[in-house]
Amino acid sequence: MGAYVYSIGATAAIFILLALSLNIITGYAGQAMMGHAAFFGLGAYTAAILTQTYGVNFFVALLLSMLVTGACGALLGLISLRLQADFLAITTIGINFVMVALFNNLSITGGSLGLTIVKPTLFGVKMGNRQFFWLTLILIVVLCLLIVKMRRSWFGMALASINNDAGAARSFGIDVSRYQILTFIIGTAIAGLAGGIYSHRMGYICSSDFAFVISIQILSMVVIGGIGTIRGPILGALLLTFLPEVLRFADDYRSLVYGALLVLMVRFMPSGLIGDNSPLVIGCKKLTGKLFAKKGGQKA
Amino acid sequence: MKELMRIEGLKVYFGGLKAIDGLDLTINQEETLGIIGPNGAGKTTLFNAICGVYKPTDGKITLKGQEVQGLPAHEMARKGIARTFQISKPLADLSILDNVIAAAGVHEYTGMRSYFRKSHTPEVVAKAEAVLEETGLRELRDKKASDVSLGYLRRLEIARVLVTDPELIMLDEPCAGLSNFAINEVTELVMKLKAQKKSIVLIEHNLPITMKVCDRIMVLSYGKKIAEGTPEVVKNDKQVIEAYLGEEDEE
C-alpha cells in the first residue's frame, strides 16, 4: 500500500476505535455522550506529556493514558447517575468545552501553541503511518472480539436491559448505576488509547484537534453507520474519514454537512445505514431468508 | 402458614404527602394476598417500598427474619422479591426469549465479573423456554417484545418473574387494560401459580378476580390499612364499602 493510503488508513483506524468506544457508551448502554473528543484529547495529551516530558515508554504511556481517561470517565459516570439523558448530553458538551479551554491554557499542554511529539520507535524503527495503521488495526480486531464476547455475556445482557428499560433491569437484579459507570470507564479508556496513538502518529497536537466538532464527527460515525452494532460504527468511521478526502472542495462546510447528516439520519433512518433495523439489513435478511427457503423447497 | 415477610410501622412520605402511614402487614408463605383500595390509596407505593424502588421514611421490613428495608431494587430482586409493573416494562428491542433470559440472570449481574460468563448457555435457554411454555408464550419466543400485544406483555412480565425462582411474587394490576379474554388467561395463569403454592401479593382493581384468587385481602385507604381478612370478611366490611362507594348522605 502507498504512503497516502497508510496515512489515511491510520486516521480511519483511529476514528474506528473512537466510534467503537462511543458506541459502547451510547449504543450499548444508551447513555447520551456528546463530548467524546474531550476524552480523546485527554488521552492524547496524557500520553504525549508522559513520553515527551517524563520519558515514559510509548506503550506504557498508552496504558497510563487509558487509566487517566478511564478514571475521568468514572467521574462522568458518577455524574450521569444524577442526570436524565438530555441533561447528560448538555453536561458532556460542557465537559468538551472545558477540556478544550484547559488544553488551550495550561502550560503543561503547551497552551495555544500545542505540543510537538517525537515519534516513538518500535523494535528500533521509528514508527510511521504504516506502523500506526497496523497497530491500530490490531487494536480494532482485539476490541471487536472483546465486544462480541461482551454481547454474549451477562454484562452485555445487563447493558441491553438498561438500554431498553432501566426500571425493568433493576427489577431483575441489575445494579444500573454500577453498569453505567463501568461503560463510561471502558468507553472513555478506549478513547484515551485512541488519543495516545493519535498524538504520537501526528507528531503535533493542539486544542482544536479535540474540539466539540470532533465529538459530533465521532457521534455522526456511530449514528450514520448504525448505533448498537459493531459493523455500523466501522462503516460510519470509514465513510466519514474517506468522504472528506473526496469532497475536499467542501471542507469549509464540514460541520454543516455532519450536522445535516445527523439530523437526516435520526429523522429518516434512525438505525443507520447498516444498523439492526435499517432497511438495508432487513432487506438482506429477507432476501437470504427467501433464498434459503427456495433451496429448502428445491430439496423437498 | 409460615411467615415470609413482616412489615412494621411502614411510612413512606413524599414531603407533606403521607402515601403510606404506619402500615403493619404480614405476608405468609404459600399464600395469595390481595391488596385493594381506591385510586391513590398507596398500593403501588407500598409495592415500590417493598421492592426497593422507594426508600421507606420509617418502619421495618423483614424477609425470612432478615431486615431488608431500604435496600435498592436490584438487591431486593436478588433476595427473591420479583415484581411486575402496572405499566408493562418490556425490553422492547429484545425477543421474548431474551426478555426472559435477561431476568434469568438475576444472580449473575455482578459488575465486571459478569463479562466472563456467557448468558445463553443451554441450561439458561432451557429454563427460559420452560417458563415460556408455562406462561403460554413459547410460540412467540423469537418475536420482538415491541411487536406483541399488551396481553402477551402481561404474561411476559409474569414469565420474567417466574424465571428468577422468587421467594415472593408481586403482581401490580396484571389485568389492567386487558380484554375480557386476556383477563381470563392472566387470571388462569395466576390461579396456576397459586395452585403451585407460590407466595403471591396481588394488586388488582378488578374486585371479582381479587375475591376469586386471594386467600386474604388487605384494604388500603389514604396510606392506612382499613380492613384485613378473608375475601368474605372484607366484602362485608363497612369501612371498605364506605371507602369504595362513599358515605351515605345523612340528609
What's the SSE blueprint?
The complex is a heterodimer of chains A (300) and B (251).
Chain A: H1 3-28, H2 36-52, H3 58-80, H4 85-105, E1 115-116, E2 121-122, E3 125-126, H5 129-151, H6 154-164, H7 166-171, H8 176-202, E4 204-205, H9 212-225, H10 231-246, H11 254-268, H12 279-299
Antiparallel strand pairs in A: 1-4, 2-3
Chain B: E1 3-14, E2 17-28, E3 32-36, H1 43-51, E4 58-63, E5 66-67, H2 73-78, E6 81-83, H3 96-104, H4 122-134, H5 150-162, E7 168-172, H6 180-195, E8 200-203, H7 207-213, E9 216-221, E10 224-229, H8 231-235, H9 238-245
Parallel strand pairs in B: 3-8, 3-9, 6-7, 7-8
Antiparallel strand pairs in B: 1-2, 1-4, 4-5, 9-10
Helix pairs in contact in B: 3-4, 3-5, 4-5, 5-6
Kindly describe this structure.
The complex is a heterodimer of chains A (300) and B (251). Chain A contains twelve helices and four strands. In chain A, a hairpin with a 2-residue loop joins strand 2 (121-122) and strand 3 (125-126). Chain A has one domain (3-268): ABC transporter involved in vitamin B12 uptake, BtuC, CATH 1.10.3470. The N and C termini of chain A lie far apart (49 Å). Chain A is an all-alpha fold and 300 residues long. Chain A has a two-stranded antiparallel ribbon with strand order 1-4. A two-stranded antiparallel sheet of chain A has the order 2-3. The longest helix of chain A is centred in the middle third of the chain and has 27 residues, at 176-202. Chain B has 251 residues and is an alpha/beta fold. In chain B, the strands form two sheets. Chain B has a six-stranded mixed beta sheet, sandwiched between helices. Chain B has a four-stranded antiparallel beta sheet with strand order 2-1-4-5, with helices on one face. In chain B, a hairpin with a 2-residue loop joins strand 9 and strand 10. Chain B is globular. In chain B, 43% of the residues are buried.
